[in-house]
Specification:
Layout lengths: L2 E2 L2 E4 L3 E2 L6 E2 L4 E2 L4 E4 L2 E2 L17 E5 L2 H9 L15 E3 L12 E4 L2 E8 L5 H6 L4 H8 L4 E7 L1 E3 L4 E6 L7 H8 L6 H8 L5 H13 L6 H5 L4
Parallel strand pairs: 8-9
Antiparallel strand pairs: 1-14, 2-5, 2-9, 3-4, 6-7, 6-13, 8-12, 10-11, 10-14, 11-12
Helix pairs in contact: 5-6
Length: 228
């Protein structure tokens, strides 16, 4: 079924909470048509290009229905009153990590997007929400959202509909794939299956390393960030 794009958001990189850090997580809604390039939405920025942005993480999509679940868990947090709490570019009702699959190709407006990976939450969510383990909660809940790469540049705007063009990996939802990435166990058979998928390079390296070393990497630097 066609799904409506409820909100489109962009943000500028500004100094963030910890010394030397920068972030564009505080994104704001945009009206009218926005250009979509291979690096994302016109006017959108990222605070740390080592781990955010780029062609494989050009646009971030977060399901709005998750907000009600977070409100139940966190209380009526002010960030949950409007889209953009999680630094997302696209906000919708109707699709979640369980219903979107790796490699899904979607048309919205005149742009064609492809689901490239789920989000691996980082410490900036802790500071944004004022909840010391928010990034871990996002990871454990599976409510991470996902990223797109841009296959065809174009324009989009809030109110436009998504159209699913192709689903090459229907057995590999974002939720299923992320559950492998966030598993502290090393299931060699499942990892081998994942390595046959068209994973982004950093996920490919991470899983290949787990297979080789028979252990899972330390998540603390990503989830807790630099200590102040």
């Amino acid at each position: 079924m066609p799904m409506k794009l409820e909100a489109v958001l962009t943000g500028k990189a500004v100094p963030f909470t910890r010394p030397g850090s920068s972030s564009a997580i505080a994104k704001q809604p945009r009206n009218g048509e926005l250009a979509v390039t291979e690096l994302g939405l016109a006017g959108d920025e990222q605070g740390d290009l080592r781990v955010h942005g780029g062609k494989e993480k050009a646009i971030h999509h977060y399901p709005r229905e998750h907000y009600a679940l977070w409100a139940e868990e966190l209380g009526e947090h002010p960030l949950l009153q409007a889209p953009g709490a999680f630094g997302e570019n696209l906000s919708t009702y109707g699709w979640t990590e369980q219903s979107v699959c790796l490699g899904d190709r979607l048309r919205v407006g005149t742009a064609v997007l492809e689901v490239s990976q789920g989000r691996m939450p980082c410490w900036k969510l802790n500071d944004r929400f004022g909840v010391k383990d928010m990034s871990l909660r996002v990871q454990q809940s599976g409510r991470t959202g996902w990223y797109y790469r841009v296959l065809e540049e174009g324009v989009l705007a809030a109110g436009m509909a998504f159209e699913l063009l192709e689903r090459p990996h229907p057995q590999w939802s974002v939720a299923r794939l992320s559950s492998v990435l966030f598993d502290k166990r090393v299931d060699r058979e499942i990892i081998r299956q994942c390595l046959e998928l068209p994973l982004v390079p950093n996920w490919q390296r991470t899983l290949a390393r787990r297979l080789e070393q028979a252990e899972v990497e330390d998540w603390a630097p990503r989830l807790q960030g630099p200590q102040v």
